[in-house]
Amino acid sequence: MRTRTALAVAAVMTAALTAGCSSAGGTGAGGGDQASGPVSLKFLSLAWQKESIAANKQLVDEWNKANPDTQVEYVQGSWDNVNDQLVTSFEGGDPPDVIHDDSPALAGFASRGYLMDLTGKLPAELKSDIPQPAWDTVTFADGKGGQGVYGVPFLQESQVIIANKKLLDAAKVRIPTPEAPWTWDEYAEISKKLTKDGVFGVAWPLKAPVNKVLNLGLNFGGTFFTTDGTKATVKVGPEEREVLQRIHDQLYKDKSADPSALGMGTADPLPGFYAGKYAMLPAGVYLRQQVVEQAPPGFEWITIPPLKGTTSEQGATSQTLSVAADSAYPDQATKFIAFFLNSTNQAKLAKGDWLLPTSMKAASDPSMTTTENGWDVATASAKDLVVAPYLRVNGFDEWKSKVATPTLQQYFADKITLDQAAETLVAEGNKVLERYNK
Amino acid sequence: MRRPLQYLALLGYVIFLAFPIVWLLSTALKSSREMASLVPTWIPRHPILSNFADAFSEQDLVGSALRSLAVAVACSVLTIVIALPASYAMARHRSLISRFAVGWVLVSQVFPFILIIIPLFMVLRSLGLVNTLPGLTVVHVTFVLPFALWMLQGYVRAVPRELEEAAAVDGAGRIRSLVKIVAPLLAPGVVATALFAFISSWNEFLFALVVLKDPDVATLPLTLVKFTGAEGVVRLGPLAAASLLATIPSLVFFAIIQRRLRSGLMAGAVKG
């Protein structure tokens, strides 16, 4: 009896595995066989919010209905591990045809020849609808001495402040507009004013502080890197120190920021925010979606425009769609991207992800400029986005993980001084970059 | 007095072990709004089922669970089939070569698996095994085998050589003594090793991510990760609902095999 059971299990397993084999049999890289049917493209999407997945799938369906000769297969990936997945796919010569990623990841892939240079391959309408600063976020060295465009930028994120309206009204503070934003000084004063009766003016969730600080650093002209031809070095001068010092002051001098929020991820302070423990949360524009979904009934909140230092500029990266250099059908893949990222579709994708479209036409869509849920403020903030200087730095990822993250965490935890932090960022950082500068 | 304290300690231990499942269930039944409360509740105030509906409607949970099950069971069976004779040989025939083999098995555990992913991917691709469950099974067996060999070798050594010698004196051949004498005594070890192989394969993510590109062949860990977003933001409700469902097949598997494991252990104890 036992033998028979074991044999039955083995038979079922064999059948299941065979089914697994056969189900995958016709879906190799590059997709379909031109001689036997329509071209098949694989589209690796990183959409993860419910509305965003729905928008992505809907657009793929629309394309497939209108283009029976080029069928797109939607493959959902995940931000957590997309780059591991892509590196092995590229190395193994089996990448998806159309790839969703973000601009910082493209530089390395471009220099290794994994992505197709889209220069001159995109329709003029799409090219002119996206402003140059956004294209700058996807223009990289090709590893052979030239430069190319390795993706189409379509979603961007700015840093805004999400605030408890009742607390702001009670403190009688000026509500800023995109035309008249708060300065960092004004913001510090308001944070102090809001700090009373067990409420902190602000919670800075700085579990992953580097990109946030570097993007905001541009408010005072802080670039953190200088480049001399092809060589990059770390720079932490007065401009770079401004934002670091101001956040630190809020935590330990003004005591208007809650130090216990420091170790939190971006969305972690939200329960405290709803409970009135914090009046303001500096965050990416996408966090509005969580607030809409989770805030208790009657909770009033507003989106505060980006702060102004010497400028309102913020470093930006962008979400992108690229074509794999190994794609068997690059022309069809490019056409699909042009359709997928036209202005109407960008508005849908931006709404789904609660981010900002790069398309100027999409940004003027009424749904992107409504006052509801702070869309008007969020969309207006796109004008101050410029290419993040670190995008151009070969070795930034290693500098970020090995040097900048632990150093900034120590600094914000008040374990080292700003001078010590600056010295480490520069000295240790340059050691890391030296290897990449060769 | 001593017995109630023992029961109390046991109860505490059970509660400790049950905590993740209870928390998962509680989270799966909460709305996003309730999850965002500053004071977490054990029992959802307004239980909802929409997280389960979302999890099922957005991802192929049942299909991916079945595929994970197929790979994990196949991995367990193949691991045992390969490791059992090999570990017997390693344990019983002590020589320079077998010592070297044992050492190599240990050394192979030292390499970070990320180092071998790309060459492995290329080998699988040349064999036409990328995007297939047999391909992933082969990888999982390769990944589990060294430790399984190490485990089983210990169990084989624990079986006294004298038992086999006594069987030989009684006229039993090598195969007969292996099947009738050694195998029953090794049963608990085999079951424990199979469990280890099953759990390792069931939870494995990195190799599956690399080998399986097609959504039609995705295993459960690959499907679960789709509920996570950028910057560590997670759709906790559907993820908890999906994770709860994901535990069911392994719980059933454990329930089935537990009795066998227990009886095997008993048998080993008496005969040893």
From TrEMBL, chain A:
Keywords: Signal. Residues 1-24 form the signal peptide. The keyword Repeat does not apply. It holds the Pfam family SBP_bac_1. Gene3D superfamilies: Periplasmic binding protein-like II. The keyword Signal applies. This is ABC-type glycerol-3-phosphate transport system substrate-binding protein. It comes from Streptosporangium lutulentum. The lineage of its organism: Bacteria, Bacillati, Actinomycetota, Actinomycetes, Streptosporangiales.
From TrEMBL, chain B:
Keywords: Cell membrane, Membrane, Sugar transport, Transmembrane, Transmembrane helix, Transport. Residues 65-257 form the ABC transmembrane type-1 domain. PROSITE patterns: ABC_TM1 (PS50928). The chain crosses the membrane at residues 7-25, 69-89, 101-124, 136-156, 177-199, 236-257. It holds the Pfam family BPD_transp_1. It comes from the Bacteria. It is found in: Cell membrane. It is a multi-pass membrane protein. Belongs to the binding-protein-dependent transport system permease family. This is Multiple sugar transport system permease protein. SUPFAM superfamilies: MetI-like. The keyword Nucleotide-binding does not apply.
